[in-house]
Amino acid sequence: MALTTYIDAITQALREEMQRDEKVFIIGEDVGVMGGVFKATKGLFEEFGPDRVIDSPLAEGIIVSSAIGAALAGMKPCPEIQFSDFITPAMDAITQQAAKLRYRSAGTQTCPLTLRVCYGGGVGGGLYHSQTNTTWFAHEPGLVVLAPGTVYDAKGMLKAAIRDDNPVIYFEHKKLYRSIKEDIPDEEFVADLYKAAVRREGKDITAVSYGYTLQLTLQAAEKMKEDHGIEVEVVDLRVLNPLDKDTVLASVAKTNRCVIVHEDHRTLGIGAELSAILAEEAFDCLDAPIVRVTAPDVPAIPFSAPLEKFYMPSVEKIVTALERTVEY
After folding, report:
1. Prediction pTM value
2. Could you say which of 129, 173, 262, 265 is catalytic?
3. Would you call 139 a catalytic residue per the annotation?
Protein backbone atom coordinates (compact mmCIF):
# COMPACT_ATOMS: atom_id res chain seq x y z
CA MET A 1 0.00 0.00 0.00
CA ALA A 2 1.16 3.52 -0.72
CA LEU A 3 -0.24 6.87 0.47
CA THR A 4 -1.24 8.61 -2.77
CA THR A 5 -2.94 11.87 -3.76
CA TYR A 6 -5.86 12.02 -6.18
CA ILE A 7 -3.78 13.61 -8.94
CA ASP A 8 -0.88 11.21 -8.50
CA ALA A 9 -3.36 8.35 -8.84
CA ILE A 10 -4.42 9.78 -12.20
CA THR A 11 -0.80 10.04 -13.37
CA GLN A 12 -0.13 6.46 -12.26
CA ALA A 13 -3.17 5.20 -14.16
CA LEU A 14 -2.11 6.93 -17.36
CA ARG A 15 1.49 5.69 -17.08
CA GLU A 16 0.51 2.09 -16.36
CA GLU A 17 -2.00 1.95 -19.22
CA MET A 18 0.50 3.50 -21.66
CA GLN A 19 3.09 0.93 -20.58
CA ARG A 20 0.55 -1.88 -20.95
CA ASP A 21 -0.87 -0.88 -24.34
CA GLU A 22 1.09 1.02 -27.01
CA LYS A 23 -2.19 2.16 -28.62
CA VAL A 24 -2.92 4.44 -25.63
CA PHE A 25 -1.94 8.07 -26.21
CA ILE A 26 -2.63 11.51 -24.71
CA ILE A 27 -3.54 14.72 -26.52
CA GLY A 28 -4.39 18.13 -25.08
CA GLU A 29 -3.29 21.65 -24.28
CA ASP A 30 0.08 21.74 -22.41
CA VAL A 31 -0.03 18.00 -21.62
CA GLY A 32 3.47 17.39 -23.07
CA VAL A 33 6.52 19.40 -22.12
CA MET A 34 4.64 21.31 -19.40
CA GLY A 35 3.09 18.16 -17.90
CA GLY A 36 -0.43 19.52 -17.91
CA VAL A 37 -1.98 22.61 -16.41
CA PHE A 38 -2.38 20.74 -13.09
CA LYS A 39 0.60 18.38 -13.71
CA ALA A 40 -1.50 15.25 -14.16
CA THR A 41 0.68 14.23 -17.14
CA LYS A 42 3.99 15.23 -15.55
CA GLY A 43 6.86 13.01 -16.73
CA LEU A 44 4.87 11.19 -19.41
CA PHE A 45 6.25 13.23 -22.31
CA GLU A 46 9.81 12.33 -21.27
CA GLU A 47 8.90 8.65 -20.91
CA PHE A 48 6.72 8.11 -23.99
CA GLY A 49 7.77 10.89 -26.38
CA PRO A 50 5.93 13.42 -28.57
CA ASP A 51 4.12 10.80 -30.66
CA ARG A 52 2.17 9.52 -27.63
CA VAL A 53 1.93 12.69 -25.49
CA ILE A 54 0.80 15.32 -27.95
CA ASP A 55 0.60 19.05 -27.29
CA SER A 56 -2.40 20.37 -29.19
CA PRO A 57 -3.49 23.85 -30.27
CA LEU A 58 -5.94 25.73 -28.03
CA ALA A 59 -8.85 24.06 -29.81
CA GLU A 60 -11.05 21.67 -27.84
CA GLY A 61 -13.02 20.71 -30.95
CA ILE A 62 -9.85 19.54 -32.68
CA ILE A 63 -8.63 17.69 -29.57
CA VAL A 64 -11.79 15.60 -29.28
CA SER A 65 -12.55 15.21 -33.00
CA SER A 66 -9.05 13.96 -33.76
CA ALA A 67 -9.24 11.58 -30.80
CA ILE A 68 -12.52 10.13 -32.06
CA GLY A 69 -10.96 9.58 -35.48
CA ALA A 70 -7.99 7.84 -33.88
CA ALA A 71 -10.32 5.64 -31.84
CA LEU A 72 -12.11 4.55 -35.01
CA ALA A 73 -8.71 3.68 -36.48
CA GLY A 74 -7.96 1.34 -33.57
CA MET A 75 -6.13 3.64 -31.15
CA LYS A 76 -7.02 4.28 -27.47
CA PRO A 77 -6.96 8.08 -27.09
CA CYS A 78 -7.03 9.87 -23.72
CA PRO A 79 -7.57 13.54 -24.53
CA GLU A 80 -7.57 16.14 -21.75
CA ILE A 81 -9.85 19.17 -21.45
CA GLN A 82 -8.07 21.63 -19.13
CA PHE A 83 -11.27 23.20 -17.81
CA SER A 84 -14.76 21.78 -18.32
CA ASP A 85 -15.98 25.32 -18.97
CA PHE A 86 -14.27 25.23 -22.38
CA ILE A 87 -15.64 21.90 -23.57
CA THR A 88 -18.47 23.41 -25.63
CA PRO A 89 -16.48 23.58 -28.93
CA ALA A 90 -16.23 19.79 -28.67
CA MET A 91 -19.90 19.16 -27.91
CA ASP A 92 -20.83 18.21 -31.47
CA ALA A 93 -18.07 15.63 -31.64
CA ILE A 94 -18.96 14.19 -28.22
CA THR A 95 -22.74 14.03 -28.48
CA GLN A 96 -23.29 13.63 -32.24
CA GLN A 97 -20.35 11.39 -33.06
CA ALA A 98 -18.81 9.54 -30.09
CA ALA A 99 -22.10 8.89 -28.29
CA LYS A 100 -23.92 7.60 -31.37
CA LEU A 101 -21.29 5.58 -33.25
CA ARG A 102 -22.27 2.20 -31.85
CA TYR A 103 -25.97 2.84 -32.50
CA ARG A 104 -25.62 4.28 -36.01
CA SER A 105 -23.31 1.45 -37.10
CA ALA A 106 -25.62 -1.26 -35.69
CA GLY A 107 -22.90 -2.25 -33.25
CA THR A 108 -20.17 -2.72 -35.83
CA GLN A 109 -18.15 0.30 -34.63
CA THR A 110 -17.11 1.38 -31.16
CA CYS A 111 -15.35 4.47 -29.86
CA PRO A 112 -12.82 3.58 -27.13
CA LEU A 113 -12.26 7.19 -26.09
CA THR A 114 -11.45 8.30 -22.52
CA LEU A 115 -11.95 12.04 -22.26
CA ARG A 116 -10.48 13.46 -19.05
CA VAL A 117 -12.22 16.67 -17.98
CA CYS A 118 -10.98 18.89 -15.13
CA TYR A 119 -13.98 20.48 -13.38
CA GLY A 120 -15.40 21.97 -10.22
CA GLY A 121 -15.43 24.96 -7.88
CA GLY A 122 -14.02 25.83 -4.49
CA VAL A 123 -10.65 26.81 -5.96
CA GLY A 124 -11.21 30.52 -6.58
CA GLY A 125 -11.29 30.08 -10.35
CA GLY A 126 -14.50 31.99 -10.95
CA LEU A 127 -16.47 32.17 -14.18
CA TYR A 128 -15.11 29.81 -16.93
CA HIS A 129 -12.67 27.97 -14.63
CA SER A 130 -14.94 26.35 -12.04
CA GLN A 131 -18.11 25.04 -13.60
CA THR A 132 -19.60 21.65 -12.86
CA ASN A 133 -21.40 20.58 -16.03
CA THR A 134 -21.59 16.83 -15.50
CA THR A 135 -25.31 16.78 -16.25
CA TRP A 136 -24.76 17.95 -19.84
CA PHE A 137 -23.23 14.55 -20.56
CA ALA A 138 -25.12 12.35 -18.10
CA HIS A 139 -28.20 13.24 -20.14
CA GLU A 140 -26.73 11.71 -23.30
CA PRO A 141 -27.32 7.96 -23.92
CA GLY A 142 -24.26 6.31 -25.42
CA LEU A 143 -21.76 8.01 -23.12
CA VAL A 144 -20.36 6.55 -19.92
CA VAL A 145 -19.92 9.41 -17.43
CA LEU A 146 -17.69 8.96 -14.38
CA ALA A 147 -17.02 11.23 -11.39
CA PRO A 148 -14.63 9.52 -8.96
CA GLY A 149 -14.62 10.90 -5.43
CA THR A 150 -11.85 8.79 -3.89
CA VAL A 151 -8.17 8.23 -4.67
CA TYR A 152 -8.74 4.50 -5.27
CA ASP A 153 -11.40 5.27 -7.86
CA ALA A 154 -9.35 8.06 -9.44
CA LYS A 155 -6.85 5.42 -10.47
CA GLY A 156 -8.98 2.30 -10.77
CA MET A 157 -11.81 3.87 -12.76
CA LEU A 158 -9.44 5.65 -15.16
CA LYS A 159 -7.63 2.39 -15.91
CA ALA A 160 -10.95 0.61 -16.42
CA ALA A 161 -12.21 3.43 -18.66
CA ILE A 162 -9.17 3.21 -20.93
CA ARG A 163 -9.78 -0.53 -21.34
CA ASP A 164 -13.50 -0.03 -22.05
CA ASP A 165 -14.72 0.08 -25.67
CA ASN A 166 -17.31 2.77 -24.97
CA PRO A 167 -16.74 6.55 -25.05
CA VAL A 168 -16.12 7.60 -21.45
CA ILE A 169 -16.20 11.11 -19.98
CA TYR A 170 -14.01 11.03 -16.87
CA PHE A 171 -14.66 14.06 -14.64
CA GLU A 172 -11.83 14.80 -12.16
CA HIS A 173 -12.50 17.49 -9.55
CA LYS A 174 -9.74 20.09 -9.19
CA LYS A 175 -10.43 20.55 -5.46
CA LEU A 176 -9.61 16.88 -4.87
CA TYR A 177 -6.27 16.85 -6.69
CA ARG A 178 -4.11 17.50 -3.65
CA SER A 179 -6.64 17.74 -0.81
CA ILE A 180 -7.18 14.01 -0.27
CA LYS A 181 -4.75 11.13 0.17
CA GLU A 182 -5.41 7.43 0.47
CA ASP A 183 -3.51 4.17 0.77
CA ILE A 184 -3.98 2.33 -2.51
CA PRO A 185 -2.64 -1.09 -3.50
CA ASP A 186 0.83 -1.38 -4.99
CA GLU A 187 -0.29 -4.21 -7.21
CA GLU A 188 -2.37 -3.92 -10.39
CA PHE A 189 -6.08 -3.14 -9.95
CA VAL A 190 -9.04 -1.70 -11.85
CA ALA A 191 -12.38 -0.47 -10.49
CA ASP A 192 -15.96 -1.30 -11.49
CA LEU A 193 -17.27 1.16 -14.10
CA TYR A 194 -20.95 0.53 -13.66
CA LYS A 195 -21.76 0.28 -9.93
CA ALA A 196 -22.34 2.81 -7.16
CA ALA A 197 -20.61 2.19 -3.83
CA VAL A 198 -21.76 2.39 -0.21
CA ARG A 199 -18.97 4.37 1.47
CA ARG A 200 -20.49 4.38 4.95
CA GLU A 201 -23.09 2.01 6.36
CA GLY A 202 -26.07 3.52 8.22
CA LYS A 203 -29.66 2.78 9.21
CA ASP A 204 -31.34 6.15 9.77
CA ILE A 205 -31.01 8.08 6.50
CA THR A 206 -29.35 7.77 3.07
CA ALA A 207 -27.13 10.51 1.63
CA VAL A 208 -26.22 10.20 -2.06
CA SER A 209 -23.38 12.15 -3.65
CA TYR A 210 -20.35 11.97 -5.98
CA GLY A 211 -17.06 13.73 -6.71
CA TYR A 212 -15.93 16.47 -4.34
CA THR A 213 -19.24 16.66 -2.49
CA LEU A 214 -18.87 12.99 -1.57
CA GLN A 215 -16.06 14.05 0.77
CA LEU A 216 -18.26 16.79 2.28
CA THR A 217 -21.10 14.29 2.71
CA LEU A 218 -18.85 11.86 4.56
CA GLN A 219 -17.81 14.67 6.92
CA ALA A 220 -21.46 15.61 7.46
CA ALA A 221 -22.32 11.97 8.20
CA GLU A 222 -19.61 11.86 10.86
CA LYS A 223 -20.93 15.07 12.42
CA MET A 224 -24.49 13.64 12.52
CA LYS A 225 -23.11 10.63 14.40
CA GLU A 226 -21.18 12.78 16.88
CA ASP A 227 -23.90 15.39 17.49
CA HIS A 228 -27.11 13.34 17.26
CA GLY A 229 -26.20 9.66 17.20
CA ILE A 230 -27.75 9.45 13.71
CA GLU A 231 -26.32 6.76 11.42
CA VAL A 232 -26.12 8.12 7.86
CA GLU A 233 -25.58 5.68 5.01
CA VAL A 234 -23.47 7.39 2.33
CA VAL A 235 -23.84 6.18 -1.27
CA ASP A 236 -21.18 7.25 -3.77
CA LEU A 237 -22.79 7.32 -7.22
CA ARG A 238 -19.37 7.24 -8.98
CA VAL A 239 -21.07 6.60 -12.35
CA LEU A 240 -23.49 9.31 -13.54
CA ASN A 241 -24.44 7.55 -16.75
CA PRO A 242 -25.71 4.86 -16.68
CA LEU A 243 -27.05 5.43 -13.14
CA ASP A 244 -26.89 2.49 -10.77
CA LYS A 245 -30.36 3.06 -9.33
CA ASP A 246 -30.50 -0.38 -7.68
CA THR A 247 -27.87 0.55 -5.07
CA VAL A 248 -29.71 3.79 -4.22
CA LEU A 249 -33.10 2.04 -4.04
CA ALA A 250 -31.70 -0.68 -1.76
CA SER A 251 -30.25 1.91 0.60
CA VAL A 252 -33.45 3.97 0.78
CA ALA A 253 -35.49 0.80 1.34
CA LYS A 254 -33.35 0.31 4.47
CA THR A 255 -33.28 3.89 5.81
CA ASN A 256 -36.60 5.31 4.46
CA ARG A 257 -35.12 8.79 4.03
CA CYS A 258 -32.87 10.39 1.43
CA VAL A 259 -30.79 13.53 0.92
CA ILE A 260 -29.04 14.05 -2.44
CA VAL A 261 -25.95 16.26 -2.67
CA HIS A 262 -24.24 17.56 -5.80
CA GLU A 263 -22.38 20.62 -7.04
CA ASP A 264 -24.12 20.88 -10.41
CA HIS A 265 -27.13 23.16 -10.88
CA ARG A 266 -30.33 22.17 -9.13
CA THR A 267 -32.88 22.19 -11.96
CA LEU A 268 -32.87 19.01 -14.07
CA GLY A 269 -29.69 17.84 -12.34
CA ILE A 270 -28.69 14.36 -11.16
CA GLY A 271 -30.63 15.01 -7.95
CA ALA A 272 -33.83 15.69 -9.89
CA GLU A 273 -33.48 12.42 -11.78
CA LEU A 274 -32.78 10.42 -8.63
CA SER A 275 -35.74 12.09 -6.90
CA ALA A 276 -38.01 11.03 -9.76
CA ILE A 277 -36.71 7.45 -9.63
CA LEU A 278 -37.32 7.27 -5.88
CA ALA A 279 -40.81 8.76 -6.27
CA GLU A 280 -41.68 6.22 -8.97
CA GLU A 281 -40.06 3.12 -7.49
CA ALA A 282 -39.65 3.67 -3.75
CA PHE A 283 -42.57 5.88 -2.73
CA ASP A 284 -43.90 3.32 -0.25
CA CYS A 285 -40.49 3.25 1.48
CA LEU A 286 -40.24 6.98 2.15
CA ASP A 287 -41.02 8.45 5.57
CA ALA A 288 -39.99 12.00 4.58
CA PRO A 289 -39.70 14.16 1.46
CA ILE A 290 -36.50 13.81 -0.56
CA VAL A 291 -34.21 16.81 -0.02
CA ARG A 292 -31.54 18.12 -2.42
CA VAL A 293 -28.39 20.11 -1.55
CA THR A 294 -27.04 21.64 -4.78
CA ALA A 295 -25.51 24.71 -6.33
CA PRO A 296 -28.11 27.38 -7.15
CA ASP A 297 -29.45 27.99 -10.65
CA VAL A 298 -27.24 30.94 -11.53
CA PRO A 299 -25.36 31.32 -14.85
CA ALA A 300 -21.89 30.71 -13.42
CA ILE A 301 -19.91 30.29 -10.22
CA PRO A 302 -18.91 33.66 -8.67
CA PHE A 303 -15.29 34.82 -8.49
CA SER A 304 -15.87 36.63 -5.18
CA ALA A 305 -14.75 34.38 -2.31
CA PRO A 306 -17.83 35.02 -0.08
CA LEU A 307 -20.17 34.47 -3.02
CA GLU A 308 -18.33 31.31 -4.07
CA LYS A 309 -18.75 30.02 -0.53
CA PHE A 310 -22.47 30.79 -0.73
CA TYR A 311 -22.66 29.00 -4.10
CA MET A 312 -20.92 25.77 -3.11
CA PRO A 313 -22.47 22.92 -1.10
CA SER A 314 -20.86 22.66 2.33
CA VAL A 315 -20.76 20.35 5.35
CA GLU A 316 -23.02 22.77 7.21
CA LYS A 317 -25.62 22.82 4.42
CA ILE A 318 -25.61 19.02 4.22
CA VAL A 319 -25.97 18.65 8.00
CA THR A 320 -28.93 21.05 7.97
CA ALA A 321 -30.60 19.02 5.22
CA LEU A 322 -29.98 15.75 7.08
CA GLU A 323 -31.38 17.19 10.33
CA ARG A 324 -34.45 18.52 8.53
CA THR A 325 -35.13 15.17 6.89
CA VAL A 326 -34.62 13.13 10.06
CA GLU A 327 -36.89 15.45 12.07
CA TYR A 328 -39.73 15.39 9.51
Report:
1. 0.97
2. 129
3. no
